[in-house]
Specification:
2 helices, 395 residues, mainly beta, 6-stranded mixed β-sheet
């Protein structure tokens, strides 16, 4: 059904007139073109279109999708939208209100308008079929419980402008496999990633100041966590990483956070890499864990471009009791150990063009192996000597 030129608050009357006595519950597809929709219009859809599958709002001139717009639960507005699968939102939309798609379990949206900057509390809570792979790049505000229970949500990254992950924003998003978080993030609120069993983070943003309680509870895919760049981290709250059963290494911040709750890492047994500073002399690590002292530099460092015949010189973190093995990527994803390169520094004189490539250092601590971002080396071309007809030469 297509409804043209309706005015705000008149959608129900227009649909009823078009149906000529047929029940609204028979409508499965609806295209809307007209004035800005109001609460009465959204209420008519929620209460009467129980068979609706697709709604096209692309020509509806609104910038805010109001709270409860398509809510399917009485916590916000008790709708009857169990069959709703797709809503084409207006391109000019900038905000999605609280509970806008609350419990729309069949909703299978694949994208949101690029201009959206705000997503409210509970906006997509338990939309289990939501199929977004990215969020609008300009998003700066993400409400509490915004995507809780969206088990099909498979975002590959989060928008760079986010500074906070709200309470339970992604809890129980079991398909979420993020490998990094926005660099400007300063706080991760309680339960933010609770139960995200495929989360694959290895480091947290340098500007992070707090990790609240149960933020990463039972994120069982976390293997090692680098906090060594988090200079301003002041708090790791209780149960923040509880039952992260695969967590094997935690590189601690350079400055001891003011608060590390005694149960922050309960249910885990990682190795802690602790900076060799007096500040950590008062820290009592969790029972049953091991602590190794490091200079805090885990990623390989060195000159990435050298002339032909120059010296390759790389180094990585000095961890007491650790063993080292430098490797080179010999084909995509294939790493080959370099014979004899088993200290935290790798030096080779007389570099050849064939030495160009990607290198990494695998550090083994208490039977756990880890490595940071690799370093790419470029070796310049070999010198060429040419002789002219007079017996001279040019290099």
């Amino acid at each position: 059904m297509v409804i043209d030129n309706f005015s705000t608050g008149s959608l129900g009357a227009k649909i009823t007139a078009e149906l000529s006595g047929d029940p609204p519950a028979d409508i499965t597809s609806l295209t809307l073109r007209g004035a800005a929709m109001g609460d009465v219009d959204f209420a008519f859809i929620r209460d009467n279109l129980s068979s609706i599958v697709t709604i096209d709002m692309s020509d509806v001139p609104i910038t805010t999708l109001p709270s409860s717009a398509f809510s399917n639960n009485l916590i916000y507005a008790d709708g009857n939208l169990d069959n709703l699968q797709n809503v084409t939102l207006p391109a000019g939309l900038t905000s999605i209100g609280d509970g806008a798609f609350f419990l729309c379990q069949s909703l299978a949206l694949t994208n949101l308008p690029d201009g959206v900057t705000s997503i409210g509390d509970d906006a997509f809570i338990y939309c289990q079929n939501l199929a977004l792979t990215n969020l609008p790049s300009g998003l700066i505000s993400l409400g509490a419980f915004a995507f809780q229970g969206c088990t099909n949500l498979a975002l590959t990254s989060l928008p760079p402008g986010l500074t906070s992950i709200g309470s339970s924003a992604f809890s129980f998003c079991t398909s979420l496999a993020l490998t990094s978080l926005p660099s400007g993030l300063t706080s991760i609120e309680d339960h933010a990633f609770n139960g995200c069993t495929n989360l694959a983070l290895t480091n947290l943003p340098a500007g992070l100041t707090s990790i609240e309680y149960l933020a990463f509870y039972e994120c069982t895919n976390l293997e090692w966590l680098d906090l060594s760049s988090c200079n301003g981290l002041t708090s790791i709250d209780f149960y923040a990483f509880q039952n992260c059963s695969s967590l094997s290494v935690v590189a601690m911040p350079p400055v001891l956070p003011a608060t590390i709750h005694a149960d922050a890492f309960s249910g885990t047994a990682p190795v802690f890499l602790v900076p060799d500073t007096l500040a950590y002399s008062s820290w009592i690590p969790p029972a049953g864990t091991k602590v190794y002292i490091t200079d805090g530099t885990l990623a390989p460092t060195g000159t990435a471009s050298i002339p032909y015949g120059g010296t390759i010189s790389f180094s990585c973190g000095n961890i007491a009791g650790a063993s080292y093995q430098w490797e080179k990527e010999t084909s995509p994803g294939v790493w080959t150990p370099i014979s004899g390169a088993t200290s935290r520094t790798y030096v080779k004189n007389g570099a050849l063009t064939s030495d160009s490539g990607v290198y990494r250092c695998v550090i083994t601590v208490s039977s756990t192996s880890l490595f940071k971002n690799p370093i790419t080396l470029t070796v310049g071309p070999a010198y060429t000597v040419a002789f002219d007809s007079q017996g001279g030469s040019a290099v």
